[in-house]
Amino acid sequence: MGCAPGYIGNCCFKVNSPLFRCIPYTGMCFHCLLNYYGSYCNKRCSPGCADNVFCHRDKGTCACREGYYGETCLKIGFPNNKSRSCYCADGNCSEMDGSCLSTNRCIVGRFGLSCQYKDKAQDALLEAIEEADLLVDNDDSTCVNVTNNTINAFWTEFVRIEWFRLVFYIEDSSRNFEIKYVGPNQTYPCSHPVVLYPHDPNRTVDIICKQSYNVKSITVSWSGDTTICSYYFSGGRTLAFLSVIDAIIQTPKDINKTRTTAMTDGDFTSCLTLNSSTRLELWFPNHIVVSEIVIYIDFNQTDDFKNFAIAFIDGNVKVYNATTSMEDMFVQRAVLRVASTVTTLEISVVSGSQRICELEVIGDCQAPNTGFLCEQHCKQGCKDNACDYNGTCYECIGERYGRSCTDVQVDLASGMAEKAFNFWPFLLLLLLLLLLILLLMYSRKKMPVVQET
C-alpha cells in the first residue's frame, strides 16, 4: 500500500516535516523534535521559548525565556514596558535610548549600554574551561579561572564578529592581548588591536580589530590575571528600528506605499504578505554599515517556504544583491562576506508569496556617526573618525588624548621656551627701569651742594 499524497518514506511522513516518530500512512507524529509541535510536527515553537524546553504539542505554548512574553512567547520585551526595543533583564528601559534604568544587566544574548549588541558568545563552544556557562550568564560577578590565560571559542557555522569584550576579576590596564581569527581556509591575525577600557574601574576591556571577519573560531590570549568573569562577542547592533519601512504595492498602473511598523515591533504574530507585486523598502536617515539580515516568517505556516531577495542601495545606486538561506523553516538569514554601506534596503520574495513577521538588520553606524540613533558624531580628535557607541575614540590624532581625544598634550620644553619668549619684554622693561633709577641716583650724587650763608 502506498503513501497518501504529500507523504513519503517507510513511515509515510509529511514532506519537510522534522519528525521523530509517526503513524504509517497518515504522517501524524507520536512525538516531535525539540522546537516543533503540531500533529505533523510541522509548526515551529517560538524563538522565545526557554532553552531545551518542549512547547505544548497542540498549542505551542511554553515557558518563556528572559525578554519574551505572551502565551506562546512570540513577543519581545516586557508587557508593562512601552519601549519596543527593551532588552534589559528586568524590563525597565529608557524610552530615549533603551538604556537600563534599574539594572546594568541585559537579557542573555544581548549586551551594551542599551543592550543593543547581539552576543555571539551564546552560540560558541569553549575549549577546556570548567564552568564555562558562568562566562555567558550576563553576570559580571560570577568568575572562573582560565588555563593559560587563553579562550578558544568555536562555532558550528560561520559567524561575523565585529569586536569583543572581556570582563576580568582584577583591575589592570597594562594587559597585552593576542588575537587570532580562523575563517574559511585562512587564519587572520589581529595585528595591533585597539584596546579600550570603557568603564571605571578597569575590569572591562573592549578589543577591536581593524577589520571584521566571517569566522568559525577565535583564540584570545592575554597577560596578567587568569580569572575572568564574562566574555561577549559582538555580532553587531540591531538597526532595523532606525528605519522608516514602507510596504510598496506595485501594479501596472500605479505604485502605492503604506507605512508599517509590524516588522520591528517585537511581535512575531503581526505579519505582512510579500508577493510579486509587494515588497518592503527600509529607508535609513543616516548611512549604516550592514553585515547581516535575519528574517522571521509566519510561525503558523506549514509548507511552501520561499526565500527572499535583498537589494542593498546607497543613495540611488544598488551596491549589492543577496538571497537569504534557511537557518530552519522559519528563520532566514543573509550574511554578507563584506559589510555594505547603505541608506536603503529593498526586500522581496523570490517567487510566489511569503508572510514576513519580524526583521533584523545587523551592523553599525557608519563613522563618524555613533550613538543610539546614529545621530551623534565622533569628536574631531578621533583618528579616522572612529569611536565606539559611547563616543570613546579608538585612537587619537596628533598630541590629543582622553576618551574623546579632546585634551591637548603640550610639549614641556616648547611650552617653557614659549613662556620664556613671552617674558623677555617684561624683563627688558624691568632692566630699563632699573637703569633709569641708577642714573637718577648717580646724577643726584654728582650735583654740587649749595651752603647757606
From TrEMBL:
It comes from the Eukaryota. The chain crosses the membrane at residues 423-442. Keywords: Membrane, Transmembrane, Transmembrane helix. InterPro entries: EGF. Residues 62-73 form the EGF-like domain. This is EGF-like domain-containing protein. The gene is 106075186.
